[in-house]
Amino acid sequence: MRLPARLRLWMGRLKARRSDLSRAWTDPALAREQRQIVDAQLEAMHAGSIAGHFSALVQVFEKIADCSDAGPQPLTVLDAGCASGYYSEVLAHLVPTPMKYCGSDFNPAMLDLAREKYPGVPLARMDIRSLGWRDGAFDVVLSGAVIVHVKEWRDAVAELARVARKWLVMHRTLVCFERQSFISVQRAYNVEVYRVHVQEAELVSLLQGFGFNLVARTDPREGGVEKDQGNFTYLFQRRTEGPRE
Questions:
Q1: How many whole angstroms separate alpha carbon 58 and alpha carbon 191?
Q2: For the chain, what are the domain ranges?
Q3: What is the pTM of this model?
Q4: Separation in Å, CA 127 to CA 30, 107, 108, 123, 206
Q5: For the domain bounded by 7-238, which CATH number is listed?
Q6: What is the pLDDT of residues 42-100, one digit of tens each?
Q7: Interior CA angle at 227 toward 224 and 228, to 5°?
């Protein structure tokens, strides 16, 4: 049965609009809106009230520190999808381990805000699906709530694994247990974006194929997910890491 021309046109426009949703996070208005929420969380952190997702991140970095062979050298950390760079402040305040933090993001406005808030922190504009660093460039690669909005999330995971020398932190990762991985659409900060629901078993299997084992899973205690889903922070360790420069 052939659809009416008007319906075919509407569906074509919808498909074209949806095809661009991976770029939705380049909207410059998102930077200030997200930072307002983050500023409140950071203020609470400095007052001694630590958000659940900050605590989850601290737990995995404490485990990294316990297992680290870095010696006196600081850990090199890439925050891929760093937004306004606020995890540099969280890690510096809550984790005593010496680190050299670097951030990357796809949104120029996010990076401008990060430079304003954290002058001197190395930052780069990068697409998480195609990172510009060499293999094993960082001791630790952190990605917080990023692949949840990337349609080609498997490509993004492959890139994160490629540039991680020893540790990969998949922070605030939306997973499902009973269903296969699937993609829906939601509104975030008044912008339509992808919402990627990754099957946990597939994520673990994918990273095992890239040479990583799952060593820890922590719960940031975030709500707003369906019954068979979770929003977790995962720590993966490379089975045989490359030499540290």
A1: 30
A2: 7-238
A3: 0.87
A4: 17, 9, 11, 13, 20
A5: 3.40.50.150
A6: 999 999 999 999 999 999 999 999 887 656 789 999 999 999 999 999 999 999 999 99
A7: 115
